[in-house]
Predict the structure of L-ascorbate oxidase.
Amino acid sequence: MGFLRGGLVLFILLCSFEKSFGSRKTRHFKWDVEYMFWSPDCKENVVMGINGQFPGPTIRAKAGDTISVLLTNKLHTEGVVIHWHGIRQVGTPWADGTASISQCAINPGETFDYRFIVDKPGTYFYHGHFGMQRSAGLYGSLIVDVADGEIEPFHYDAEFNMLLSDWWHQSVHHQEVGLSSKPFRWIGEPQTLLINGRGQFNCSLAAHFSNTTSTNQCNLRGNEQCAPQILRVLPNKTYRLRIASTTALASLNLAVGGHKMVVVEADGNYVQPFQVEDIDIYSGESYSVLIRTNQEASKNYWISIGVRGRRPQTPQALTLLNYAPISASKIPLSPPPITPTWNDYDHSKSFSNKILALMGSPKPPRIHDRRIILLNTQNLIDGFIKWSINNISLHLPSTPYLGSIKYSLKTAFDNKSPPDNFASDYDVMKPPVNPNTTTGNGVYMLPLNTTVDVILQNANALAANVSEIHPWHLHGHDFWVLGYGEGKFTKEDEKKFNLKNPPLRNTAVIFPFGWTALRFVTDNPGVWAFHCHIEPHLHMGMGVVFAEGVQHVNGIPNQALACGLTGNRFMKSTQN
Protein backbone atom coordinates (compact mmCIF):
# COMPACT_ATOMS: atom_id res chain seq x y z
CA MET A 1 0.00 0.00 0.00
CA GLY A 2 2.88 2.35 0.83
CA PHE A 3 4.31 1.71 -2.64
CA LEU A 4 0.95 2.33 -4.23
CA ARG A 5 0.53 5.53 -2.27
CA GLY A 6 4.02 6.71 -3.25
CA GLY A 7 3.43 5.74 -6.86
CA LEU A 8 0.18 7.66 -6.88
CA VAL A 9 1.92 10.78 -5.53
CA LEU A 10 4.65 10.45 -8.17
CA PHE A 11 2.02 9.98 -10.89
CA ILE A 12 0.18 13.14 -9.73
CA LEU A 13 3.45 15.11 -9.68
CA LEU A 14 4.36 13.92 -13.16
CA CYS A 15 0.92 14.82 -14.48
CA SER A 16 1.22 18.25 -12.89
CA PHE A 17 4.66 18.71 -14.45
CA GLU A 18 3.33 17.63 -17.84
CA LYS A 19 0.44 20.09 -17.58
CA SER A 20 2.76 22.96 -16.65
CA PHE A 21 5.66 22.27 -18.96
CA GLY A 22 5.02 19.31 -21.21
CA SER A 23 2.89 21.16 -23.74
CA ARG A 24 5.32 24.02 -24.23
CA LYS A 25 6.87 24.08 -27.67
CA THR A 26 9.70 25.71 -29.53
CA ARG A 27 8.28 27.30 -32.66
CA HIS A 28 10.86 27.73 -35.42
CA PHE A 29 10.77 30.34 -38.16
CA LYS A 30 13.27 31.12 -40.90
CA TRP A 31 12.95 34.63 -42.28
CA ASP A 32 14.62 36.63 -45.04
CA VAL A 33 14.22 40.42 -44.87
CA GLU A 34 14.41 42.20 -48.22
CA TYR A 35 13.00 45.06 -50.25
CA MET A 36 10.37 44.17 -52.83
CA PHE A 37 7.75 45.76 -55.04
CA TRP A 38 4.27 45.83 -53.53
CA SER A 39 1.02 47.75 -53.79
CA PRO A 40 -0.16 48.39 -50.22
CA ASP A 41 -2.73 51.00 -51.32
CA CYS A 42 -3.16 49.95 -54.97
CA LYS A 43 -0.19 52.13 -55.96
CA GLU A 44 3.00 50.13 -56.54
CA ASN A 45 5.92 51.03 -54.34
CA VAL A 46 8.90 49.46 -52.61
CA VAL A 47 8.29 47.88 -49.19
CA MET A 48 10.45 46.03 -46.72
CA GLY A 49 9.04 42.52 -46.51
CA ILE A 50 9.73 39.13 -44.96
CA ASN A 51 9.80 35.94 -47.04
CA GLY A 52 8.06 37.81 -49.85
CA GLN A 53 5.19 38.90 -47.60
CA PHE A 54 3.90 42.29 -46.50
CA PRO A 55 3.14 42.64 -43.66
CA GLY A 56 5.47 39.96 -42.38
CA PRO A 57 4.22 36.50 -41.34
CA THR A 58 2.00 36.32 -38.27
CA ILE A 59 3.56 34.45 -35.36
CA ARG A 60 1.06 32.48 -33.29
CA ALA A 61 2.16 30.75 -30.10
CA LYS A 62 0.97 29.79 -26.62
CA ALA A 63 2.12 31.30 -23.36
CA GLY A 64 5.29 29.54 -22.25
CA ASP A 65 6.40 28.65 -25.78
CA THR A 66 9.85 29.49 -27.10
CA ILE A 67 10.08 31.42 -30.35
CA SER A 68 13.11 30.94 -32.58
CA VAL A 69 13.41 33.25 -35.57
CA LEU A 70 16.45 32.72 -37.76
CA LEU A 71 16.61 36.13 -39.43
CA THR A 72 18.77 36.73 -42.51
CA ASN A 73 19.38 40.26 -43.76
CA LYS A 74 19.02 40.43 -47.55
CA LEU A 75 18.81 44.23 -47.77
CA HIS A 76 22.28 44.48 -49.41
CA THR A 77 23.15 48.00 -48.15
CA GLU A 78 21.76 48.42 -44.62
CA GLY A 79 21.57 46.65 -41.30
CA VAL A 80 18.39 45.38 -39.68
CA VAL A 81 16.98 44.29 -36.30
CA ILE A 82 13.48 43.29 -35.20
CA HIS A 83 11.89 44.29 -31.90
CA TRP A 84 9.24 41.99 -30.42
CA HIS A 85 6.92 44.67 -29.12
CA GLY A 86 5.41 43.87 -25.72
CA ILE A 87 7.49 40.73 -25.12
CA ARG A 88 9.48 41.35 -21.94
CA GLN A 89 12.49 39.19 -22.88
CA VAL A 90 12.95 37.86 -19.35
CA GLY A 91 16.39 36.23 -19.35
CA THR A 92 17.08 37.11 -23.00
CA PRO A 93 17.64 40.90 -23.15
CA TRP A 94 19.88 40.53 -26.21
CA ALA A 95 16.83 39.33 -28.18
CA ASP A 96 14.92 42.58 -27.63
CA GLY A 97 15.91 43.75 -31.11
CA THR A 98 17.09 47.30 -30.43
CA ALA A 99 20.14 48.34 -32.42
CA SER A 100 22.90 49.93 -30.30
CA ILE A 101 21.05 49.01 -27.10
CA SER A 102 20.56 45.23 -26.95
CA GLN A 103 22.50 44.15 -30.04
CA CYS A 104 24.45 45.16 -33.10
CA ALA A 105 22.51 45.66 -36.28
CA ILE A 106 22.51 42.50 -38.42
CA ASN A 107 24.72 43.29 -41.39
CA PRO A 108 23.76 42.45 -45.00
CA GLY A 109 24.17 38.74 -45.61
CA GLU A 110 24.34 37.89 -41.90
CA THR A 111 21.91 35.77 -39.89
CA PHE A 112 20.86 36.23 -36.26
CA ASP A 113 18.87 33.76 -34.16
CA TYR A 114 16.22 35.50 -32.07
CA ARG A 115 15.26 33.00 -29.39
CA PHE A 116 12.97 33.99 -26.52
CA ILE A 117 10.01 32.86 -24.42
CA VAL A 118 6.58 34.43 -24.78
CA ASP A 119 5.59 34.35 -21.14
CA LYS A 120 2.04 35.69 -21.14
CA PRO A 121 -0.93 35.72 -23.49
CA GLY A 122 -1.92 38.82 -25.39
CA THR A 123 -2.03 40.81 -28.60
CA TYR A 124 1.46 41.85 -29.67
CA PHE A 125 3.39 42.67 -32.82
CA TYR A 126 6.94 43.02 -34.10
CA HIS A 127 8.68 45.70 -36.13
CA GLY A 128 12.03 47.00 -37.32
CA HIS A 129 13.99 49.03 -34.77
CA PHE A 130 16.91 50.33 -36.84
CA GLY A 131 16.71 53.69 -38.54
CA MET A 132 13.11 54.13 -39.70
CA GLN A 133 12.44 50.66 -41.05
CA ARG A 134 9.00 50.51 -39.45
CA SER A 135 7.98 53.30 -41.85
CA ALA A 136 9.32 51.14 -44.69
CA GLY A 137 6.92 48.31 -43.81
CA LEU A 138 8.96 46.00 -41.59
CA TYR A 139 6.29 44.75 -39.19
CA GLY A 140 3.85 41.94 -38.48
CA SER A 141 1.58 40.44 -35.83
CA LEU A 142 2.53 38.28 -32.85
CA ILE A 143 -0.40 36.61 -31.10
CA VAL A 144 0.08 34.66 -27.86
CA ASP A 145 -2.80 32.43 -26.80
CA VAL A 146 -3.32 31.15 -23.28
CA ALA A 147 -1.37 28.05 -22.31
CA ASP A 148 -3.04 24.65 -22.55
CA GLY A 149 -5.40 24.15 -19.66
CA GLU A 150 -5.90 27.89 -19.12
CA ILE A 151 -8.89 29.99 -20.18
CA GLU A 152 -9.46 33.66 -20.94
CA PRO A 153 -11.62 35.66 -18.51
CA PHE A 154 -14.15 36.28 -21.29
CA HIS A 155 -15.94 34.23 -23.94
CA TYR A 156 -15.94 34.65 -27.72
CA ASP A 157 -16.81 32.47 -30.69
CA ALA A 158 -14.11 33.56 -33.14
CA GLU A 159 -11.59 36.32 -33.64
CA PHE A 160 -10.08 38.69 -36.19
CA ASN A 161 -6.66 40.33 -36.18
CA MET A 162 -6.32 43.97 -37.25
CA LEU A 163 -2.79 45.40 -37.54
CA LEU A 164 -3.00 49.13 -38.27
CA SER A 165 -0.30 51.19 -39.95
CA ASP A 166 0.29 54.31 -42.03
CA TRP A 167 1.89 54.55 -45.45
CA TRP A 168 3.76 57.19 -47.46
CA HIS A 169 4.47 57.18 -51.17
CA GLN A 170 7.85 58.82 -50.68
CA SER A 171 10.54 56.47 -49.46
CA VAL A 172 11.66 56.20 -45.88
CA HIS A 173 15.01 57.62 -47.00
CA HIS A 174 13.28 60.82 -48.19
CA GLN A 175 11.77 61.12 -44.74
CA GLU A 176 15.03 60.44 -42.90
CA VAL A 177 16.97 63.00 -44.91
CA GLY A 178 14.24 65.60 -44.49
CA LEU A 179 14.13 65.15 -40.72
CA SER A 180 17.90 65.66 -40.55
CA SER A 181 18.02 68.67 -42.87
CA LYS A 182 18.50 72.39 -42.26
CA PRO A 183 16.05 73.85 -42.89
CA PHE A 184 13.80 71.04 -41.69
CA ARG A 185 11.90 69.34 -44.52
CA TRP A 186 8.76 67.35 -43.70
CA ILE A 187 7.33 64.97 -46.30
CA GLY A 188 3.85 65.56 -44.93
CA GLU A 189 1.15 63.34 -43.51
CA PRO A 190 0.84 59.73 -44.73
CA GLN A 191 -1.09 59.15 -47.93
CA THR A 192 -2.96 56.10 -46.67
CA LEU A 193 -3.96 54.20 -43.54
CA LEU A 194 -3.58 50.43 -43.84
CA ILE A 195 -5.47 47.56 -42.20
CA ASN A 196 -3.33 44.40 -42.26
CA GLY A 197 -1.15 46.10 -44.86
CA ARG A 198 -4.03 46.97 -47.20
CA GLY A 199 -5.50 50.35 -48.08
CA GLN A 200 -6.94 52.21 -51.05
CA PHE A 201 -5.38 55.47 -52.22
CA ASN A 202 -7.47 58.14 -53.90
CA CYS A 203 -10.53 55.99 -54.46
CA SER A 204 -13.81 55.06 -52.77
CA LEU A 205 -14.54 51.60 -51.38
CA ALA A 206 -18.21 52.58 -51.30
CA ALA A 207 -18.16 53.17 -55.04
CA HIS A 208 -16.33 49.88 -55.58
CA PHE A 209 -18.75 47.75 -53.60
CA SER A 210 -21.78 49.40 -55.21
CA ASN A 211 -20.51 48.38 -58.68
CA THR A 212 -21.23 51.88 -59.98
CA THR A 213 -19.36 53.48 -62.85
CA SER A 214 -17.98 56.19 -60.57
CA THR A 215 -14.61 57.57 -61.63
CA ASN A 216 -13.58 57.28 -57.99
CA GLN A 217 -14.11 53.51 -57.89
CA CYS A 218 -11.19 51.44 -56.56
CA ASN A 219 -9.54 49.21 -59.14
CA LEU A 220 -9.14 46.04 -57.08
CA ARG A 221 -9.37 43.50 -59.89
CA GLY A 222 -6.26 41.39 -59.96
CA ASN A 223 -4.79 43.40 -57.10
CA GLU A 224 -5.23 41.24 -54.03
CA GLN A 225 -2.44 43.16 -52.29
CA CYS A 226 -4.67 46.18 -51.62
CA ALA A 227 -8.10 44.55 -51.52
CA PRO A 228 -9.64 45.03 -48.08
CA GLN A 229 -9.79 42.06 -45.75
CA ILE A 230 -13.50 41.82 -45.02
CA LEU A 231 -14.61 40.58 -41.61
CA ARG A 232 -17.17 37.89 -42.41
CA VAL A 233 -19.40 37.11 -39.44
CA LEU A 234 -22.44 35.08 -38.45
CA PRO A 235 -25.41 36.69 -36.69
CA ASN A 236 -25.70 36.53 -32.91
CA LYS A 237 -22.12 35.58 -32.24
CA THR A 238 -19.40 37.22 -30.15
CA TYR A 239 -16.18 38.14 -31.94
CA ARG A 240 -12.85 39.24 -30.55
CA LEU A 241 -11.08 41.95 -32.53
CA ARG A 242 -7.37 42.02 -31.80
CA ILE A 243 -6.25 45.54 -32.71
CA ALA A 244 -2.63 46.75 -32.69
CA SER A 245 -1.11 49.97 -34.01
CA THR A 246 2.33 49.94 -35.55
CA THR A 247 1.88 53.37 -37.15
CA ALA A 248 5.00 55.46 -37.62
CA LEU A 249 3.13 58.72 -37.00
CA ALA A 250 -0.66 58.59 -36.80
CA SER A 251 -2.80 58.28 -33.70
CA LEU A 252 -6.00 56.51 -34.69
CA ASN A 253 -9.63 55.98 -33.80
CA LEU A 254 -11.57 52.82 -34.69
CA ALA A 255 -15.34 52.34 -34.80
CA VAL A 256 -17.70 49.63 -36.07
CA GLY A 257 -20.89 51.01 -37.54
CA GLY A 258 -23.99 50.11 -35.52
CA HIS A 259 -22.05 48.05 -32.99
CA LYS A 260 -20.71 48.78 -29.54
CA MET A 261 -17.38 47.37 -28.41
CA VAL A 262 -16.36 45.97 -25.04
CA VAL A 263 -12.67 46.51 -24.23
CA VAL A 264 -11.15 43.48 -22.45
CA GLU A 265 -7.39 43.64 -23.05
CA ALA A 266 -4.76 46.37 -23.33
CA ASP A 267 -1.12 45.68 -24.24
CA GLY A 268 -1.34 42.01 -23.25
CA ASN A 269 -3.04 42.70 -19.90
CA TYR A 270 -6.65 42.05 -18.97
CA VAL A 271 -8.75 45.08 -18.03
CA GLN A 272 -12.12 45.59 -16.42
CA PRO A 273 -14.53 45.23 -19.36
CA PHE A 274 -16.15 48.50 -20.42
CA GLN A 275 -18.34 49.42 -23.36
CA VAL A 276 -17.53 52.13 -25.92
CA GLU A 277 -18.73 53.39 -29.29
CA ASP A 278 -15.15 53.80 -30.54
CA ILE A 279 -11.57 53.46 -29.32
CA ASP A 280 -8.51 55.67 -29.61
CA ILE A 281 -5.33 53.74 -30.27
CA TYR A 282 -1.87 55.29 -30.31
CA SER A 283 1.27 53.98 -31.96
CA GLY A 284 2.60 51.05 -29.95
CA GLU A 285 -0.68 50.17 -28.26
CA SER A 286 -2.81 47.05 -28.64
CA TYR A 287 -6.33 46.16 -27.54
CA SER A 288 -8.81 43.34 -27.66
CA VAL A 289 -12.46 44.29 -27.97
CA LEU A 290 -15.55 42.11 -28.13
CA ILE A 291 -18.44 42.83 -30.49
CA ARG A 292 -21.80 41.09 -30.58
CA THR A 293 -23.28 40.60 -34.06
CA ASN A 294 -26.78 41.41 -32.89
CA GLN A 295 -27.73 44.00 -35.48
CA GLU A 296 -29.99 43.58 -38.50
CA ALA A 297 -28.56 40.58 -40.31
CA SER A 298 -29.68 41.70 -43.77
CA LYS A 299 -27.15 44.55 -43.73
CA ASN A 300 -23.41 45.07 -43.81
CA TYR A 301 -21.62 47.62 -41.64
CA TRP A 302 -18.61 49.87 -42.12
CA ILE A 303 -15.50 49.62 -39.96
CA SER A 304 -13.71 52.98 -40.04
CA ILE A 305 -10.28 54.09 -38.89
CA GLY A 306 -9.38 57.78 -38.82
CA VAL A 307 -6.62 60.09 -37.62
CA ARG A 308 -6.58 61.65 -34.14
CA GLY A 309 -4.17 64.08 -32.49
CA ARG A 310 -3.03 65.69 -35.76
CA ARG A 311 -4.96 67.75 -38.26
CA PRO A 312 -6.08 64.92 -40.58
CA GLN A 313 -4.88 65.02 -44.17
CA THR A 314 -5.16 61.25 -44.58
CA PRO A 315 -8.54 59.71 -45.51
CA GLN A 316 -10.22 57.14 -43.30
CA ALA A 317 -9.35 53.50 -43.80
CA LEU A 318 -12.44 51.36 -44.36
CA THR A 319 -13.43 47.74 -44.44
CA LEU A 320 -16.68 45.82 -43.99
CA LEU A 321 -18.32 43.80 -41.27
CA ASN A 322 -20.12 41.38 -43.56
CA TYR A 323 -23.04 39.42 -42.10
CA ALA A 324 -23.40 35.96 -43.65
CA PRO A 325 -24.99 34.89 -45.87
CA ILE A 326 -25.48 38.25 -47.62
CA SER A 327 -22.97 39.40 -50.21
CA ALA A 328 -20.11 41.70 -49.32
CA SER A 329 -21.04 43.73 -52.39
CA LYS A 330 -24.11 45.02 -50.56
CA ILE A 331 -22.90 48.37 -49.29
CA PRO A 332 -24.05 49.63 -45.89
CA LEU A 333 -27.01 51.98 -45.98
CA SER A 334 -25.42 54.23 -43.35
CA PRO A 335 -22.20 56.19 -43.98
CA PRO A 336 -18.99 55.10 -42.21
CA PRO A 337 -18.69 56.15 -38.54
CA ILE A 338 -17.32 59.66 -38.23
CA THR A 339 -13.93 59.93 -36.53
CA PRO A 340 -14.06 62.33 -33.55
CA THR A 341 -12.54 65.76 -34.18
CA TRP A 342 -8.76 65.43 -34.28
CA ASN A 343 -8.18 67.72 -31.26
CA ASP A 344 -11.08 66.57 -29.10
CA TYR A 345 -8.76 65.53 -26.29
CA ASP A 346 -11.58 65.29 -23.77
CA HIS A 347 -12.87 62.34 -25.80
CA SER A 348 -9.40 60.77 -25.74
CA LYS A 349 -8.89 61.34 -22.03
CA SER A 350 -12.31 59.92 -21.22
CA PHE A 351 -11.38 56.69 -22.99
CA SER A 352 -7.94 56.46 -21.34
CA ASN A 353 -9.37 57.00 -17.87
CA LYS A 354 -11.82 54.10 -18.30
CA ILE A 355 -8.98 51.60 -18.62
CA LEU A 356 -8.55 49.84 -15.26
CA ALA A 357 -6.90 46.57 -14.30
CA LEU A 358 -9.05 43.47 -14.04
CA MET A 359 -9.68 42.36 -10.46
CA GLY A 360 -6.87 40.06 -9.35
CA SER A 361 -4.20 41.80 -11.45
CA PRO A 362 -0.88 42.67 -9.78
CA LYS A 363 -1.00 45.92 -7.84
CA PRO A 364 1.81 48.47 -7.74
CA PRO A 365 4.04 48.99 -4.72
CA ARG A 366 2.63 51.75 -2.50
CA ILE A 367 5.82 53.84 -2.53
CA HIS A 368 8.62 54.50 -4.98
CA ASP A 369 12.38 54.36 -4.45
CA ARG A 370 13.26 56.80 -7.22
CA ARG A 371 11.34 59.31 -9.28
CA ILE A 372 12.48 60.44 -12.72
CA ILE A 373 10.64 63.35 -14.35
CA LEU A 374 11.14 63.49 -18.10
CA LEU A 375 10.44 66.83 -19.82
CA ASN A 376 9.51 66.38 -23.50
CA THR A 377 10.62 69.37 -25.57
CA GLN A 378 11.36 70.35 -29.15
CA ASN A 379 14.72 72.06 -29.48
CA LEU A 380 17.50 73.15 -31.80
CA ILE A 381 21.09 71.99 -32.30
CA ASP A 382 23.00 74.33 -34.64
CA GLY A 383 19.70 75.14 -36.34
CA PHE A 384 18.63 71.48 -36.74
CA ILE A 385 15.29 70.63 -35.13
CA LYS A 386 15.47 67.89 -32.49
CA TRP A 387 13.34 66.36 -29.76
CA SER A 388 14.90 66.27 -26.30
CA ILE A 389 14.32 64.78 -22.86
CA ASN A 390 15.48 67.00 -20.00
CA ASN A 391 17.34 69.01 -22.63
CA ILE A 392 19.29 66.02 -24.00
CA SER A 393 18.60 64.63 -27.47
CA LEU A 394 19.38 60.90 -27.56
CA HIS A 395 22.13 59.86 -29.96
CA LEU A 396 22.86 56.14 -29.71
CA PRO A 397 26.47 54.86 -29.55
CA SER A 398 28.09 52.50 -32.03
CA THR A 399 28.51 49.73 -29.45
CA PRO A 400 25.42 48.17 -27.81
CA TYR A 401 24.95 49.23 -24.19
CA LEU A 402 24.27 45.66 -23.09
CA GLY A 403 27.83 44.56 -23.89
CA SER A 404 29.43 47.87 -22.91
CA ILE A 405 27.94 47.76 -19.41
CA LYS A 406 28.35 44.01 -18.91
CA TYR A 407 32.06 44.13 -19.79
CA SER A 408 32.83 47.62 -18.40
CA LEU A 409 33.76 49.24 -21.71
CA LYS A 410 33.96 52.70 -20.14
CA THR A 411 34.54 54.73 -23.30
CA ALA A 412 31.63 53.27 -25.28
CA PHE A 413 29.10 55.84 -24.04
CA ASP A 414 28.76 58.85 -21.76
CA ASN A 415 29.15 57.58 -18.19
CA LYS A 416 27.45 60.64 -16.71
CA SER A 417 23.84 59.88 -15.76
CA PRO A 418 21.17 62.00 -17.45
CA PRO A 419 19.25 64.34 -15.12
CA ASP A 420 16.31 63.05 -13.06
CA ASN A 421 14.41 66.32 -13.43
CA PHE A 422 14.34 69.68 -15.20
CA ALA A 423 14.64 73.26 -13.98
CA SER A 424 11.81 74.16 -11.58
CA ASP A 425 11.24 77.52 -13.29
CA TYR A 426 10.66 75.98 -16.75
CA ASP A 427 7.27 77.07 -18.15
CA VAL A 428 5.74 74.09 -19.93
CA MET A 429 2.97 76.27 -21.38
CA LYS A 430 5.31 78.43 -23.47
CA PRO A 431 8.04 77.81 -26.08
CA PRO A 432 11.49 77.38 -24.52
CA VAL A 433 13.25 80.64 -23.69
CA ASN A 434 16.51 79.06 -24.80
CA PRO A 435 15.68 76.50 -27.50
CA ASN A 436 19.20 75.09 -27.78
CA THR A 437 19.99 71.59 -26.62
CA THR A 438 22.76 69.01 -26.89
CA THR A 439 23.07 65.34 -27.82
CA GLY A 440 23.93 62.64 -25.33
CA ASN A 441 23.91 58.87 -24.79
CA GLY A 442 24.09 58.51 -21.02
CA VAL A 443 22.12 55.79 -19.21
CA TYR A 444 19.84 55.80 -16.19
CA MET A 445 21.47 53.13 -13.99
CA LEU A 446 18.75 51.59 -11.83
CA PRO A 447 19.39 49.19 -8.91
CA LEU A 448 17.75 45.79 -9.32
CA ASN A 449 14.39 45.17 -7.63
CA THR A 450 13.56 48.78 -6.87
CA THR A 451 10.41 50.76 -7.62
CA VAL A 452 10.77 53.60 -10.12
CA ASP A 453 8.27 56.34 -10.90
CA VAL A 454 8.49 58.04 -14.26
CA ILE A 455 6.57 61.27 -14.78
CA LEU A 456 6.24 62.10 -18.46
CA GLN A 457 5.88 65.88 -18.70
CA ASN A 458 4.68 67.38 -21.95
CA ALA A 459 5.43 70.98 -22.93
CA ASN A 460 5.03 73.58 -25.62
CA ALA A 461 7.03 72.88 -28.78
CA LEU A 462 9.11 75.51 -30.62
CA ALA A 463 6.01 77.19 -32.06
CA ALA A 464 3.65 78.95 -29.66
CA ASN A 465 0.48 77.13 -28.57
CA VAL A 466 1.67 73.80 -29.98
CA SER A 467 2.06 70.65 -27.89
CA GLU A 468 1.93 67.23 -29.51
CA ILE A 469 0.70 63.80 -28.40
CA HIS A 470 3.51 61.38 -27.52
CA PRO A 471 2.90 57.65 -26.93
CA TRP A 472 5.81 56.30 -24.85
CA HIS A 473 6.85 52.65 -24.99
CA LEU A 474 9.00 50.82 -22.42
CA HIS A 475 11.00 47.77 -23.43
CA GLY A 476 11.52 44.87 -21.04
CA HIS A 477 8.66 45.78 -18.70
CA ASP A 478 5.04 46.53 -18.18
CA PHE A 479 4.31 49.57 -16.02
CA TRP A 480 1.32 50.76 -14.03
CA VAL A 481 -0.34 53.91 -15.36
CA LEU A 482 -1.04 55.78 -12.14
CA GLY A 483 -2.78 58.75 -13.71
CA TYR A 484 -2.94 61.69 -16.09
CA GLY A 485 -3.03 65.41 -15.40
CA GLU A 486 -3.04 68.89 -16.89
CA GLY A 487 -0.20 71.39 -16.89
CA LYS A 488 2.94 70.99 -14.84
CA PHE A 489 3.21 68.04 -12.46
CA THR A 490 3.52 68.96 -8.78
CA LYS A 491 3.88 67.02 -5.54
CA GLU A 492 0.18 67.67 -4.88
CA ASP A 493 -0.70 65.65 -7.98
CA GLU A 494 0.35 62.46 -6.18
CA LYS A 495 -3.03 62.57 -4.44
CA LYS A 496 -4.60 61.80 -7.84
CA PHE A 497 -2.63 58.56 -8.29
CA ASN A 498 -4.65 55.38 -8.70
CA LEU A 499 -2.96 52.75 -6.54
CA LYS A 500 -6.04 50.53 -6.31
CA ASN A 501 -6.47 49.20 -9.85
CA PRO A 502 -4.15 51.02 -12.29
CA PRO A 503 -3.79 49.25 -15.64
CA LEU A 504 -0.59 47.50 -16.60
CA ARG A 505 0.62 48.69 -20.00
CA ASN A 506 3.81 48.82 -22.07
CA THR A 507 2.79 52.00 -23.92
CA ALA A 508 1.19 55.15 -22.49
CA VAL A 509 0.29 58.49 -24.01
CA ILE A 510 0.99 61.99 -22.72
CA PHE A 511 -1.57 64.51 -23.88
CA PRO A 512 -0.68 68.06 -25.00
CA PHE A 513 0.40 70.32 -22.12
CA GLY A 514 -0.13 67.47 -19.65
CA TRP A 515 1.61 64.77 -17.65
CA THR A 516 1.35 60.99 -17.26
CA ALA A 517 2.58 59.09 -14.19
CA LEU A 518 4.01 55.56 -14.50
CA ARG A 519 5.46 53.09 -12.00
CA PHE A 520 7.50 49.94 -12.63
CA VAL A 521 9.76 47.53 -10.77
CA THR A 522 13.30 46.90 -12.00
CA ASP A 523 13.00 43.12 -11.93
CA ASN A 524 14.33 42.24 -15.39
CA PRO A 525 18.13 42.47 -15.81
CA GLY A 526 19.10 44.15 -19.07
CA VAL A 527 19.30 47.46 -20.89
CA TRP A 528 15.96 48.78 -22.03
CA ALA A 529 14.86 51.56 -24.36
CA PHE A 530 12.10 53.95 -23.26
CA HIS A 531 11.01 56.23 -26.06
CA CYS A 532 8.29 57.99 -27.98
CA HIS A 533 6.83 55.45 -30.40
CA ILE A 534 6.29 58.05 -33.12
CA GLU A 535 9.15 57.05 -35.38
CA PRO A 536 10.20 60.52 -36.58
CA HIS A 537 10.34 61.70 -32.95
CA LEU A 538 12.61 58.83 -31.88
CA HIS A 539 14.77 59.44 -34.95
CA MET A 540 15.14 63.05 -33.78
CA GLY A 541 16.23 62.07 -30.26
CA MET A 542 13.08 61.48 -28.17
CA GLY A 543 14.12 58.66 -25.91
CA VAL A 544 16.13 57.51 -22.90
CA VAL A 545 17.83 54.27 -21.83
CA PHE A 546 17.42 52.35 -18.55
CA ALA A 547 19.88 49.69 -17.30
CA GLU A 548 19.29 47.32 -14.39
CA GLY A 549 21.15 44.31 -13.01
CA VAL A 550 23.29 43.89 -16.13
CA GLN A 551 25.91 42.03 -14.10
CA HIS A 552 23.35 39.21 -13.75
CA VAL A 553 22.95 38.81 -17.52
CA ASN A 554 24.76 35.75 -18.88
CA GLY A 555 25.01 34.05 -22.23
CA ILE A 556 25.04 37.14 -24.47
CA PRO A 557 25.75 35.91 -28.01
CA ASN A 558 29.03 37.23 -29.45
CA GLN A 559 27.19 38.38 -32.55
CA ALA A 560 25.11 40.78 -30.45
CA LEU A 561 28.26 42.64 -29.36
CA ALA A 562 30.77 42.68 -32.22
CA CYS A 563 30.29 46.18 -33.58
CA GLY A 564 31.71 49.61 -32.93
CA LEU A 565 35.31 50.37 -32.05
CA THR A 566 35.15 49.15 -28.46
CA GLY A 567 32.96 46.23 -29.47
CA ASN A 568 35.59 45.05 -31.94
CA ARG A 569 38.29 45.49 -29.31
CA PHE A 570 36.27 43.37 -26.89
CA MET A 571 35.77 40.59 -29.43
CA LYS A 572 39.50 40.53 -30.18
CA SER A 573 40.33 40.36 -26.47
CA THR A 574 38.00 37.41 -25.90
CA GLN A 575 39.60 35.53 -28.78
CA ASN A 576 43.15 35.92 -27.42
